[in-house]
Design a protein that fits this description.
Layout: E1 38-55, E2 59-65, E3 68-74, E4 83-89, E5 93-94, H1 105-110, E6 122-132, E7 137-146, E8 149-163, E9 173-183, E10 196-210
Antiparallel strand pairs: 1-2, 1-3, 1-10, 2-5, 3-4, 4-6, 6-7, 7-8, 8-9, 9-10
Length: about 210
């Protein structure tokens, strides 16, 4: 398995996650938006991590991880100096399987043949480079650690909005959407490929709150 730098059309790595991970990114023009530099963490009540894989060439099977923690160290004057770390709780996988009385599919996915949560309960993403690509867009390259392997992943990030002061609390806030694709087989996670696709698309939406 080679360490090939991923691209949007075919990143060298889902996860799942993911990951993980992934997850998250810095606003493209923080200084222009008057967001102060500092530490920001994601608001779990306004964070979602969706992933999807092709199923039998018929559909894009979509599920999520319910527990994600992310921290941005934001340099508002030069976002290329900003950093991101994110952790995905792999045990929080949630598929909304319609017949849980017959099959606990979430438990099956946590098993050693799939996510192997007992041995690798978390996936982590640590940024290595943030690059502005437009007025409200950026790419965030980093290292995704998943199932005992660490590979490079790049996410495309769009700034949805930013507030110098959140309307419900006395802190600054911003929200982003991050998207990308990983090849799960590169992490030794190739069960049922090609019937269940190797390419895992991820979409992360998150609000970040300034830590005082």
């Amino acid at each position: 398995m080679s360490k090939v730098q991923p691209t949007r059309s075919k990143l060298s790595t889902a996860l799942i996650i993911t990951t993980a991970l992934a997850g998250f990114a810095m606003p493209a023009q923080a200084a222009d938006l008057a967001i102060p530099s500092g530490t920001y963490t994601n608001d779990p009540t306004h964070t979602s991590f969706l992933w999807s894989v092709n199923h039998l060439g018929l559909s894009e099977y979509t599920a999520r991880f319910n527990t994600v923690e992310a921290t941005v160290e934001l340099d508002a004057d030069d976002i290329s100096n900003s950093t991101l770390t994110a952790t995905i709780d792999m045990g929080s996988v949630d598929t909304d399987f319609p017949f849980p009385q017959n099959t606990d599919f979430n438990a099956e996915l946590r098993g050693s043949d799939w996510l192997n949560v007992p041995d690798h309960p978390q996936a982590t993403f640590t940024s290595t480079q943030v690059t502005k690509t437009g007025d409200t867009t950026a790419t965030v390259a980093g290292d995704l650690s998943f199932r005992g392997l660490t590979l490079p992943v790049t996410l495309d990030v769009e700034l949805i909005g930013a507030l110098e002061q959140h309307p419900f609390m006395p802190v600054a806030a911003f929200g982003i959407q991050a998207t990308g694709t990983i090849d799960r087989s590169e992490f030794g996670f190739d069960r049922f490929v090609p019937n269940v696709g190797a390419a895992v698309a991820i979409e992360i939406n998150a609000e970040f709150l300034q830590q005082m």
